[in-house]
Amino acid sequence: MSVLKAVLRIAGPDGKHHNWADVARLSAHNTRAVMPDNADPSRCHLNRYLIGGPDDNVVALGQAMIRERRTSKRKIRSDAVLAVSGIMSASPEFFRPGRASEGGTWEPECLDTWVRDNMAWIINKYGDRVIQAVLHVDEQTPHIHIILVPLDGNGNLNCAALFGGTSHTMSRLQSDYAAAMAHLGLTIEMHQAKAKHHEVTELYSVMANTPTPAMVRPETVIAKHETPGRLAGKTEIEHWGVELLEDYYGQAQALITAQAQKAAWADHLRLEAERKAAYYKDAADKLKAELAANEEAAGSLKRQYQAVTTTLRDLGLGRVLQDFFEAEFAAQDGDHLYYMLPGGPEVCFDGSRWTIQTPDSELASGRGAIDLLMALTDRPFQPVVRDLVEVYGDEAAIGAVNAYTYYTAPTEVDQILDDYSPSDLALRVLEARRLRDRPAPDLVRSGPTAPASLKAMATSPSKPGM
After folding, report:
1. Extended beta strands in 96-177, E state
2. Model confidence, pTM
3. Rounded to the nearest 10 degrees, how much is the dihedral formed by the CA atoms of 203, 30, 182, 205?
4. 291-303 pLDDT per residue, tens
């Protein structure tokens, strides 16, 4: 005879709940508000509510119990265990003696006795902390789900006080449950002092993994029945034959039923695997589409960035100095380049920033090609731009103008804010909008204008007008 085992899984790795959303999902499973794949909908009405009812809001009940009984005034920690769940079951053979392979069936007397003794143990152990207990008989093997609030004797959330944080405490709990189930012929496997826990999915697999009867052989059946003697009468021989046939066909039917259940279970697993494969394929397809969209968006941003950098591309300062003033490259010191102007000072620049200097003093400084030409020629903005258009063309000149605006706009805005009151500033904005909306006059192109005396600039003690 096989050993009948009791199953208790409580406060395991997946049985300690730190948020009420998990408790709500678990309660939905218990009440069949969410139907699991391994449950038979035609037997759901046979499930029993042992504590609580189908319409109870378990989350509200748990929260209310904590509010009413919790004595600590401190804020509940984010990692506190708010609820504990557990499951109790037994070997299939216990619920249906001699018919372990007939999943989804049970003997009413065996089931009622087991339920009565399990609930007595739970209530004696945890009292009214248990806010939900449901018997499920719509799966392969009957089992009870419970949810409780882990309040200690002082009214504080204290899962460790009830279930401990050590293997010794859990082993003692398992031993206590084993003692309560011993009179039913149920035992619990103990591994030294450590209780053995399983994930819910693994536990369902164990409950569903019922044994399959061995292949029926005629010689085995005949050996179980005493063969009539040579002097046996016709009636005795006929009875013997009937017994053989009934035994043989009974075992064959049990084998067929078990194999059919195995096939159904295998089909269920296959369908579940196909469903998960379809889900992951759909998720992968969505991820690929998102990646493609992100790549397209990144490409669009890159193109926009390239367009902006193109419009802001200034003219090279060395090129401008050579084309306009026949300046000669003098030296390089790190990132600083030095050009000598004919008969005049030198220009030092690093990127877009430049300085006009003599060995003794700095004459002017600024940023960008237009600003440099305005300083060296002592001419305003528009004539300088006309020169750039004539020498380098419209596109290069537009890039230089955009760069000049980018360089000088912050300084000009600060100057405006310093020089004008809010009312004056509003009037200037209106005037700027009026000028902006006027038709732009055609640019009158003319050749580059030679600079004013560079020697005079080199000897001038004051900074040139900008």
Report:
1. 130-136, 143-148
2. 0.45
3. -20
4. 888 888 887 777 7
